[in-house]
Amino acid sequence: MFVEETALVLEFTSESPVEQVNVIRPDGELFAEREIPAGSTRETVEIGTDYQPGEYDILGLEDGDERARESIVIEPDVQITDLRLGRNHPEAMYEGASDREAQREAIVTIENTGTGSDEVTRLEFSGDVPRPTPDDYEKSGIYDTESDIGRYADAVTLPPDSEVVIYSQSMPFSPAGDHVSCSPETTAGEFETIIETSVQGKATVATYNVTYTGEDLLECEIELEVST
User: Fold this and answer.
1) How far, in Å, CA of 39 to CA of 14, rounded?
2) Kind of pairing, strands 118-127 and 106-112?
3) Average model confidence (pLDDT) for the chain?
4) Which of 50, 65, 166, 204 is the most exposed place for a label (fewest CB within 10 A)?
5) How is the chain split into domains, by residue range?
6) Closest by Cα among 86, 93, 158 to 119
7) 2-74, superfamily in CATH?
C-alpha cells in the first residue's frame, strides 16, 4: 500500500482474500471502510489534503473477523528548497509574466519528501525586503498559474515525494517598497520566506542573507544566499 497523489492505494493478492477493509485514523477512529468485490486486487481511499497525519491501521476483514492488519505512516514533510528573484531570473517566471511582475516577485521551489499530500495555503516574506507581507494581508500571496486574470491561488497541492514551483503575488521586491534601501556601498540584511500548509501544522521557514547594491531599488543589484 502507498499514497498516490491524494489517495491511499491498497493492493491485494489472491492468497489473502478479504471482504472488507477498514482504515483507522491515528486517533483510533474509523476513517473509511470499503467492501472488496471478489477478485479485486486494488482499491483506493481518498485521503485529500485535510487529514490527520500519523500512523493509519489497515484492517482486512472476512465474515466480520480480522484476517490481516498493516500500518502505514501518512504525513507530509514540506521544505523550501530554492528561492530566486524574478528580476534575476526572468526566464523562470510563469508564462505571460510582464517585466514589471518579474522585477517585483519571487520564485519559490517547495519539496514534499513525506508520505502524505499537503497543500500550500500562504506565502509570506518578512525582514529586510522592500515590501514585507503586511500582518493584515488576507490573500494567499501565491500567484494562480491556472488563471488568465492574475488572481491569487487559494492553495497549491503538494503530493508526496514531489516538488512544485510557486510564484509570489505580494510584490516583496517592489522598487516602490520603502522597508530597505539600496546604496552604492551595499546594504546588507536578512529576510525570511514563510509558507503555511493545511496538514503539516507548523509554518515552514527559510532564512536568507541579502545585499542591495546600486543607486536605487529600481536598478538595484540584489543578491541572496541561504543563511546558515
Assistant:
1) 7
2) unpaired
3) 93
4) 65
5) 2-74, 78-226
6) 158
7) Immunoglobulins (2.60.40.10)
